[in-house]
Amino acid sequence: MTNNNVKEPLLSGSLNETQKAKRLLNKRRLNRSRSAPSTDLVPSETQCKETTHPTTSIFQNLHPNYKRVAIYLAVYLGVGALIFFLVRDQIKGTKTDGILDALYFTIVTMTTVGYGDLVPDSHLTKLLACAFVFSGMALIGLTVSKAADYLVEKQELLLVKAMHVHQKVGSTGILRELETNKTRYKLFVVFFLLLVLFTAGTIFLVTVEKLDVIDAFYCVCSTITTLGYGDKSFSTQAGRIFAVFWILTGTITLAQFFLYIAELNTEIRQKELVKWVLTRKVTNLDLEAADLDEDGTVGAAEFVIYKLKEMGKISQEDISLVMQEFEQLDVDDSGTLSPSDITLAQST
Amino acid sequence: MTNNNVKEPLLSGSLNETQKAKRLLNKRRLNRSRSAPSTDLVPSETQCKETTHPTTSIFQNLHPNYKRVAIYLAVYLGVGALIFFLVRDQIKGTKTDGILDALYFTIVTMTTVGYGDLVPDSHLTKLLACAFVFSGMALIGLTVSKAADYLVEKQELLLVKAMHVHQKVGSTGILRELETNKTRYKLFVVFFLLLVLFTAGTIFLVTVEKLDVIDAFYCVCSTITTLGYGDKSFSTQAGRIFAVFWILTGTITLAQFFLYIAELNTEIRQKELVKWVLTRKVTNLDLEAADLDEDGTVGAAEFVIYKLKEMGKISQEDISLVMQEFEQLDVDDSGTLSPSDITLAQST
């Protein structure tokens, strides 16, 4: 075994700063940030460039492709605005400007706000609205899962840089801290954004649409939650220009807010379980159960597997799958892998 | 070390049927089924009853409490119906029966359908609607995450029983198969339910509300997606009785459908990564990196940890946490845990 600087990257905190930052960026996924691929594959990247082509290509595929979502959104809105502009005579209600109304109608439909101030008035437009609301919902879902994460992570990296420069704290420590409090931080950012959107919406409705404060607040709530009774909506041209941007960001931000609350809730429960697993007394029965190779003692790795399994982080299925590969690789059946196994495996 | 039947429960498939079934039931969580606590703790339960009280109480707390969600929902709807009945004179629009309209209004609000056929007509009712839409959204989110899982799992267990009786296949095999295809199966069940709800809604609107087929389909789409323009809605007493049940199940089912698509998508990606990690060639560099105790060879447990880390199932943080406990427990600093360590640890 060659003895170079890759020595125990598994247990040491040997990731460099760029890798840590990358890891931070990559670990994000809508539903399963814990099980989603992290860049723990990365360590090998800098040390042995030639072996990492598959890693890189896999991650390019798995990455949240923010740009792609933005393009989808732009195409959807463009197509929507064009189509509903072409059939504008088959839509009835409060109208201002042709193409603006079409875009406004597309957004009110895709976000499921559905005020009803503009409604389809023919079979064609009704069916079009049906098609647009389903595809719009899917697209909004996709956007919710990707868009704000992007913003939050950009901001996190800036924060890390700032802390690193000003407080001279080791960046590893900061990053670990950030990772732990990530959900709380995201929730805070989104809550702040929501407050800004609420205030902006209310002020706009009072000054431009001339609603009283309670009505403006009511219209803001009704819109952001996608309730959209439609008794109060954006009826002026200026109002609709504002609405086009404000409705889209508002509804997405609120959806995200709820998502992060759910995520935080899961994390808190998960942490409670981890804490319980780590503090409960280890008995001789545990040692027997953890003794994977049945040699009468429990090594560090065996103990780690046993505990992580108890925490529910890994399942028996995960372990069995890897064990199958291990047995195939262990050509000399020694119960351990050594460079000689690798050589033997490659020669056969 | 006593030599009883607990021998290697970690790697053998020694969970009995009840435990497997329990595991199946417990593994469900909205966002993080993989990282959510599974009952991998259960193995010790049957073999050493006296040590498992903490396990049981932890899981009672962590379980999705379906009943509790149902109670919340009933209380919410009860309070909503009562309050909006009391302020019925401050709500304008198409009215049928006092308490029915109040319940209908509560449901149209909480699901964010917001037709606008009934709208608040005073500052008080407007603010009430704001309060109800936010709390309703949270409750619907909670319901989406719990309710249908319950139904699906009930059905799965029935299916397992049926297959076990009729085909005489080992239940372990069936359960593993079910676990793997669970998301696909759930998606299928929810899709089927959605078709039923679509058909029922359309037929009802055609026969009772006297809409033409396209209008009925349009109203169904507009409602289930929570778009609710409000140009077509339930205006008769019979219609509103139907709507009360149909809107709630329809919107929740569609939300679940989208959720399962997202889940399936994540699972497919995750599987691709697992496959890649398991099929890529193991090099000497990997062996060095996986050699946790630096003894020059890689044991089974070390290999499992290395691969699971590469799959992103566990993080460095997870490992470090458990390693800390290991080091504390390894009183004689032998690098392994044995019954003597436990005895030493307890005596100090």
TrEMBL record, chains A, B:
Q: Might you report a single GO cellular component term? A: plasma membrane
Database matches in InterPro entries: 2pore_dom_K_chnl, EF-hand-dom_pair, EF_Hand_1_Ca_BS, K_chnl_dom
Task: Give the span(s) annotated as Disordered.
Answer: 27-49
Spell out the molecular function terms from Gene Ontology: metal ion binding; outward rectifier potassium channel activity; potassium ion leak channel activity
Q: Where are the transmembrane segments?
A: 69-87, 99-118, 124-144, 185-207, 242-262
Q: Ranges for the Potassium channel domain?
A: 72-152, 193-265
Q: Which Gene3D superfamilies does the UniProt record give?
A: 1.10.287.70
- Membrane association type: Multi-pass membrane protein
As for subcellular location, the record says: Vacuole membrane
User: Which terms does the UniProt entry file under GO BP?
Assistant: intracellular potassium ion homeostasis; stabilization of membrane potential
For this UniProt record, give its keywords in alphabetical order, as a comma-separated list: Calcium, Ion channel, Ion transport, Membrane, Metal-binding, Potassium, Potassium channel, Potassium transport, Repeat, Transmembrane, Transmembrane helix, Transport, Vacuole
Residue stretches in coiled coil = none
Q: What is its main location?
A: membrane
Homology family: Belongs to the two pore domain potassium channel (TC 1.A.1.7) family.
Q: What is this protein called?
A: Potassium channel domain-containing protein
Q: Which organism is it from?
A: Vigna mungo
